[in-house]
């Protein structure tokens, strides 16, 4: 079995999901850090951490079922994510959301809001004040939010299996390929896929730690 399609799809799904989560984590993290969202919102955002990934997949399947308004709309426009690679993106994004939001909230703790207002009071345009004063402080934390989401998305299995399926060359990510090889008794192939999984996991973990140490 050629592992490259599964590896490439895993990297693509992780990159797209973490990139899509970044603005969401940035906004929700800001609202949480400033107290604009209550305890109920924080509880809801943390729920995917407690749910088994398979349960998250079942919830997504129910949401995008043609029997429900959301699923019916997507089906009508030919965009239903079930059994597609972007269904894997959706599943990975849901599972990684709590970690990304937590990192996004932490990023805003170092935001020098008073310094930004001071720069504006001295005549700086809002965009310039944000770019030269605020962004250098908050950007490392937001990069960490992206990296954490990438790391979590890279290893997602349960929700992806239910939503995207396990179609070789189309929706089969590296964790799914490893599962198939193990279940079929092809232990040589499973060992090779495990090696690739460990390598990618090591690289993703190294990225997260590198960003963490560079975050003020």
Write the layout of secondary structure elements.
Elements: H1 4-33, H2 39-50, H3 53-63, H4 69-76, H5 85-108, H6 113-121, H7 126-154, H8 158-164, H9 174-183, H10 187-214
Description of the molecule:
This protein is mostly helical. The chain has one domain (4-51, 84-214): MetI-like fold, CATH 1.10.3720. Helix content is 78%, strand content 0%. The chain is built from 10 helices and no strands. Helix 5 packs across helix 8 (158-164). The longest helix is centred in the first third of the chain and has 30 residues, at 4-33. The protein is globular. It starts with a helix and ends with a helix. The model has no long low-confidence stretch (mean pLDDT 87).
- Beta-strand percentage? under 5%
CATH class: Mainly Alpha
CATH superfamily: MetI-like
Biggest sheet features: none
User: If you consult CATH, what is the topology?
Assistant: MetI-like fold
Overall number of structural domains: 1
Q: Which CATH architecture would you pick?
A: Orthogonal Bundle
Quaternary status: single chain
Q: Give the count of helical stretches.
A: 10
Count of strand segments = 0
Uncertain residue ranges: none
Q: How confident is the prediction overall: mean pLDDT?
A: 87
How far is it from the N-terminal to the C-terminal residue, by CA? 44 Å
Overall morphology: globular
Rg, rounded, reads 20 Å
Summary tags:
10 helices, mainly alpha, 216 residues, MetI-like fold, 78% helix
